[in-house]
Specification:
This protein has a 7-stranded antiparallel beta sheet with strand order 18-13-14-17-16-15-19, with no helix packed on it. A 7-stranded antiparallel beta sheet has the order 45-51-48-49-50-47-46, with no helix packed on it. The chain contains 2 helices and 53 strands. Helix content is 1%, strand content 40%. The protein is elongated. It is mainly β. A hairpin with a 6-residue loop joins strand 5 and strand 6.
Length: 615
C-alpha cells in the first residue's frame, strides 16, 4: 500500500506528518524562510516552489533540488594508445551529463568535445591478401603481418563487399579469427581492409551535487556531427576516464529532440526558480519567476525535471501592461493563466499548437494559493471580489461583502490561502485584515447556501493561519489543517472547544471567583495530567464579560488563571473553557517553535450580511 503523508514547511525545513499514527518526521531544510510555497505532486514526487529557492523534489525518502545542473566543461578526447584497434570508423564527438540514477534524472550535457578521427579508407591496413572460407571464422593471410596490438578488435572487410566483421583474436601474423563465421563466398587472394580504432575520454567532469550518482555519455555516429546518441553510463561520480569501443550500430537512441525550427537540441534544463506549479496535458507548467514574471514555463512531456534547453521552454504572456502572472490552474481543455488584473487561457495539448487567449480583463487573481477547485469550478480571490470559472464564464461570488474584502491588507494579498472543505461544502480563505502583519481571519464561503443577491453565504472567524489544507485521514474523513505562526500544525473542526475534549464542563455560570480563580460548584473539569493548563477561559456574559485568561492549573471545580482578572467575575458570570464560537478547534503538532505556545488564538464566528448598497 502506498504511504500517504501531509507535507509541510516550517522554519525553512520540510516535514511530513503521518496523520494516522500522529507522528511527524523532519526531512530537510535549505528553504528561505518567510516565503509563499506551492506544491505539485507529479509521478508520485512532490515538487516544491517558492520563487526564491531552486524548485525542490521530495520522493518520500529524500529532499533534493529538482533537475540537475549542466556540465560546464567538455572531457578530453584522443585516440586510444595501443592496443588501439577498435570498432570506431569515422570522426566522433562526445558530450557528458550528470545523472541521478535513483530518480532517473539527467541534466543538460557538457559542451561538445573536439572531434577525434579513427581509421578511414585512406589509412586502413591492407598488406598482402587473405583467404576466406564460407561458414568459417578463420582468415588466413599471405604476405600479412597481423598483430594483436594493432588489429585485434579492428573491423575486417573484403574489398567489394559491404559485410564487416570484428577481429576477435589474432593467432599469428597470418591468421586471425572473426567474431562470427564468414557469410560470403569462399575465395583466396582476396584484397581486404582492417580499419577502426578506440577513443579515450579523459578529465570527465564529476559533480559536487550529492544527488548525482553517475555520468551519461553521448556520442555522434561518425557521420553526422550534430546528432548525438546515448553511448553509455559511468555508474559512479568518481571515475574520470573511459575507453570507447562501441560501434555505430550498437549506439542507443537519439538523445535530442527537435525544437520549433527543426534543430536538434538537448532539453534537460532544470526548472527556473518558479513561484508556483501546475500539471496539464502530461507536462509540468510553472510561473512566478521574479526575473520574468510574465513567462509561462513548461517541461518536456512526462518529465517535470526537464524544462527544455538552457533558455527554457516558455510562452510569454507579456502584453506591455506590466501585469504579471499570479496563478495557474488546470481544466480538462485549458490551462488557466491568471494575472493580477486579467485572466487568460493556454489552449492546445503540445507546444506546436499552444494558443494564448485572453478571457477577461477585470477579474484577476491576487494569490496562486487562493485558487481552489470545487467540482468543475475554479474559485479564487481577486482584489475586490471572489470569482469562479466553469470553463466558459467567470462569475463574482462575493459582491455583497465587498466592504470586508476592501478592508483586507493589500500588501499581504499574496499570502491569502484557500482550501475546499468538501465535508462542510465550504471554501475557506485565510487573510490579513487591515494593517495585520499575519493572516488573522478566515473568510468562509458556504457554496450551497444562497445569501444576498443570490451570492453564497459568507461567514468569518478569527484565526491566525499561515496556510490551509484539506487532509483525508485514515478513515477517509476529510478535515482542515492549518499552520500557525508558532511552528504548530493544527487540526480544525474536530471539537467544539479548544483543548478541552468532548467530556467535562465547557460552559456554565460561575458561583464564586477571586482575583485569580473562578469556581463552579457543579463543574467536572478534567484534571488528568496537566488538566486544563494552557487552555483559555473567557467570560461570555455578566460581570467581567469579555475577559479572557489562560488557565494555570485547575481542580474539578476551580480554575486558577495566570493573570488576575481586571474585574472579578461573580455568580452572574457565564464562562466558557476553550471557547470557540464556530465549529473549529485546534489539536496541534509542534514543529519546534521556540515559543511556548500551547493553544492557538480564540476563534470567533460571525455571519456577514453586508448589503449591496453598503458595498
Amino acid at each position: 500500500m502506498t504511504a500517504r503523508y501531509v507535507c509541510l514547511i516550517a522554519g525553512g525545513a520540510l516535514h511530513y506528518l503521518d496523520t494516522v499514527a500522529g507522528t511527524y518526521k523532519p526531512v530537510g531544510g535549505g528553504f528561505l524562510k518567510g516565503q509563499v510555497y506551492d506544491f505539485l505532486n507529479f509521478n508520485d514526487i512532490l515538487y516544491i516552489a517558492n520563487g526564491e529557492d531552486k524548485v525542490k523534489a521530495f520522493d518520500g525518502v529524500s529532499l533534493r533540488d529538482a533537475g540537475i545542473d549542466a556540465v560546464g566543461s567538455a572531457p578530453g578526447v584522443a585516440l586510444k594508445a595501443a592496443p588501439n584497434a577498435g570498432a570506431l570508423i569515422g570522426t566522433y564527438r562526445y558530450k557528458v551529463a550528470f545523472r541521478n540514477s535513483r530518480n532517473l534524472v539527467t541534466g543538460l550535457p557538457s559542451p561538445t568535445t573536439d572531434p577525434v578521427a579513427t581509421s578511414t579508407e585512406s589509412d586502413a591496413y591492407a598488406t598482402g591478401t587473405v583467404t576466406v572460407t564460407r561458414n568459417s571464422d578463420s582468415v588466413v593471410g599471405a604476405g600479412t603481418a597481423f598483430t594483436s596490438n594493432s588489429h585485434e578488435n579492428g573491423i575486417f572487410s573484403i574489398d567489394g563487399t559491404e559485410a564487416t566483421y570484428r577481429i576477435d583474436s589474432v593467432n599469428t601474423t597470418t591468421v586471425f579469427h572473426m567474431d562470427r563465421p564468414y557469410e560470403g563466398i569462399t575465395g583466396s587472394a582476396k584484397t581486404y581492409k582492417i580499419r577502426g580504432g578506440k577513443v579515450s575520454l579523459s578529465a570527465i567532469p564529476v559533480s559536487t551535487d550529492t544527488q548525482v550518482t553517475s555520468r551519461r555519455i553521448y556520442r555522434t555516429d561518425g557521420a553526422d556531427p550534430d546528432r548525438f546518441y546515448y553511448l553509455t553510463d559511468i555508474s559512479n561520480n568518481t571515475a574520470t576516464t573511459y575507453n570507447d569501443n562501441i560501434s555505430d550500430d550498437s549506439l542507443g537512441a537519439v538523445a535530442q529532440v527537435a525544437d520549433d525550427a527543426g534543430d536538434l537540441i538537448f532539453a534537460n534544463a532544470r526548472p527556473p526558480r518558479l513561484g508556483f506549479l501546475e500539471s496539464y496535458k502530461g507536462r509540468a507548467f510553472g510561473a512566478g519567476d521574479k526575473d520574468a514574471p510574465t513567462k509561462l514555463y513548461y517541461s518536456e512531456i512526462t518529465d517535470p525535471e526537464a524544462w527544455g534547453p538552457a533558455t527554457f521552454n516558455f510562452v510569454d504572456f507579456d502584453e506591455g501592461d506590466g501585469d504579471e502572472i499570479t496563478g495557474l490552474a488546470a481544466l480538462p481543455n485549458m490551462l488557466l493563466v491568471l494575472k493580477r488584473d486579467s485572466v487568460h487561457a493556454l489552449m492546445g495539448d503540445a507546444p506546436a499548437n499552444f494558443v494564448r487567449r485572453r478571457l477577461v480583463s477585470d477579474a484577476g487573481c491576487v494569490s496562486n494559493n487562493s485558487i481552489v477547485q470545487v467540482g468543475r469550478l475554479l474559485i479564487w480571490m481577486g482584489e475586490d471580489n471572489v470569482f469562479s470559472f466553469d470553463g466558459s464564464a467567470i462569475s463574482p461570488l462575493a459582491s455583497h461583502i465587498a466592504a470586508t474584502l476592501r478592508a483586507l491588507n493589500t500588501s499581504r494579498q499574496k499570502f491569502i490561502h484557500g482550501v475546499h472543505y468538501q465535508r462542510r461544502r465550504q471554501v475557506w480563505f485565510t487573510c490579513s485584515d487591515g494593517s495585520a502583519t499575519t493572516n488573522n481571519l478566515v473568510l468562509v464561503m458556504h457554496y450551497d447556501m444562497s445569501g444576498s443577491g443570490g451570492d453564497p453565504v459568507w461567514t468569518k472567524f478569527d484565526l491566525r493561519a499561515a496556510s490551509l489544507a484539506e487532509v483525508e485521514e485514515g478513515d477517509d474523513n476529510t478535515v482542515i489543517y492549518h499552520g500557525d505562526y508558532f511552528g504548530h500544525l493544527c487540526k480544525d473542526d474536530v471539537l467544539y472547544n479548544d483543548g478541552v475534549g468532548s467530556t467535562g464542563t465547557v460552559s456554565a455560570c460561575a458561583n464564586t471567583a477571586t482575583a485569580s480563580t473562578l469556581r463552579d460548584n457543579d463543574a467536572a473539569f478534567p484534571t488528568a495530567g496537566d488538566g486544563l493548563k494552557g487552555v483559555l477561559v473567557r467570560i461570555l456574559s455578566g460581570v467581567g464579560s469579555g475577559q479572557e485568561r489562560t488557565i494555570d492549573s485547575n481542580t474539578a471545580s476551580t480554575l486558577s488563571v495566570t493573570a488576575n482578572w481586571t474585574t472579578n467575575p461573580n455568580n452572574t458570570s457565564w464562562f466558557a473553557v476553550g471557547p470557540i464560537r464556530a465549529y473549529a478547534a485546534t489539536p496541534k503538532t509542534d514543529f519546534g517553535s521556540i515559543v511556548d505556545h500551547k493553544r492557538t488564538y480564540w476563534h470567533h464566528l460571525e455571519v456577514s450580511r453586508e448589503s449591496s448598497a453598503g458595498a
